[in-house]
Amino acid sequence: MEEVINQAEGNNVAFTPYDYIQDAERTLRIPDRFQDVYLNYLYAKIDFGNQETERYNNDVAMYNASYEAYAAWFRREHKPKKRAMFSKF
User: Fold this and answer.
1) What are 41-67's pLDDT values in tens digits?
2) CA-to-CA distance for 9 and 43, rounded, in angstroms?
3) If DSSP codes are grouped into helix, strand and coil, which group holds residue 80?
4) For tag attachment on the chain, is the N or C end more exposed, with fewer CB atoms within 10 Å?
5) How far is CA 7 from each of CA 1, 21, 72, 86, rounded to the nearest angstrom?
């Protein structure tokens, strides 16, 4: 939330974790075209739990790549928030 979504103008979303029972039909924050972010995260968690280090490392690399692709797309599509500018140091 803070790294990507709340950096865009007009967004100030508070993070609230999903609850499966209440939110089973809720739409996820990241669009379907970037569903690899969720899948690669789950794969990495499973491999970490199974102590499959090599597969975990591959899954984390794929997660990072898919997350960065999503973040780059979001930043291209949304205007960033205006920040304070410093001058005359």
Assistant:
1) 999 999 999 999 999 999 999 999 998
2) 33
3) strand
4) C
5) 8, 30, 12, 19
